[in-house]
Amino acid sequence: MPDAASLPFVTVISTGGTIARHSDNPCDTVDYAEIGRDLGASHLLSALPDVVRARFRVREITFSQKDSSHMDMSIWAELARRIRDVLRESPDMAGVVVTHGTTTLEEAAFFLDLVLDEERPVVLVGAQRPASAISADGPANLHAALLVATSAQARGQGVLVVSDNEIHAAGSVTKASTYRLDTFRSPDFGPLGVIEGDAVCFARQVAARRRIGGDALERIAHDRPRVDICYSHSGGDGTAIAAFCAAGARGLVVASMLPGMCAPAESAALDAACAQGVAVVMSSQGSSGATLARQDLRQRGIMAAGRLRPRQARILLTLCLALDMPAARIQHLFDIP
């Protein structure tokens, strides 16, 4: 038996979600969110076999017990500060694993990747089935996340998402399926790597990361700019766009019809928003492909979201506006592939 001090040291921070939900019905994989109960970090780890837990030295922190639909940027900012403090307090720590509900996991990962500047891995992991379900996927996902968090190959790759034995970059991953176990995918370039058995295998590295910096955490704690998402559709009349502006939106992200088009009345409403000083970013409803800064958009003063999907684009625009970034700098961040 190896000495405990020689084992790779990981902190597991539990925030709630499906991976930490328990239902009295082992066949329940649908209603558990409303009728189940929450489990803390220690319960998640206890689901792993002794032989697996014996391979790691784990510190357990229960940060919250929330369904991920209740999470927002103020909570993620607090979580980012906790992660930052945990890593600073323990130079010998290999990395951090954050368990999180899958509904907003891609947003949480993207937010954390923007504001954390850490070489050591921060790995987000969730589950599609509750802990009480037949063939629950949480324990296997958690084991895989521990392996990635302690892998030297994961250093410097930014915040990672581990699910169904795949490793995804925070900037490219999306939840693609409501109930299937292979829900997390990176549509344009695929996963960074895989976990096969006990081996962590990275096929490539993150080419470039968007860095906002920790200053944004303090800014949004005092003044978080309102940024809304407008869903475009045929025959749209721009009523929602006008309503968001009237409610005080400083930014609008358009989930446009592909490849970045809106109905005529919506386009007119967006032009009116730009004239009022509202920052407008054109993204698309598609799961892959970039929304490019076409000549028409540039002439109208509308930014293009690049490969970011609407919910990610909203997070980036919110942080940029909180830091009073100029439009050219914001567009540069969106242009990073």
Describe this structure in words.
With 337 residues, this protein is of the alpha/beta class. The protein folds into two domains: 199 residues, Rossmann fold (3-Layer(aba) Sandwich); 111 residues, Rossmann fold (3-Layer(aba) Sandwich), CATH 3.40.50.40. The chain contains twelve helices and 16 strands.
Keywords:
AsnASE_II; 19% strand; 2 domains; Rossmann fold; asparaginase activity; 33% helix; alpha/beta; four-stranded parallel sheet; Asparaginase/glutaminase_AS1; globular; 337 residues; hydrolase; eight-stranded mixed sheet; L-asparaginase 2
- Please give the CATH architecture of the largest domain: 3-Layer(aba) Sandwich
Q: Widest sheet: strand order?
A: 4-1-5-6-7-8-11-12
Number of domains: 2
Instruction: Report helical residue fraction.
Output: 25-40%
**How many distinct helices?**
12
Instruction: Please give the CATH class of the largest domain.
Output: Alpha Beta
Structural class: alpha/beta
Approximate strand percentage:
15-25%
Instruction: Give the H and E element order.
Output: EEHEHHEHEHEHEEEEEEHEHEHEHEHH
- CATH topology of the largest domain, anyone? Rossmann fold
Low-confidence stretches: none
Shape: globular
Largest sheet: 8 strands, mixed
Q: What's the count of strands?
A: 16
Overall pLDDT level: 93
What's the CATH superfamily of the largest domain, by name?
L-asparaginase, N-terminal domain
Question: First CA to last CA: what distance?
Answer: 46 Å
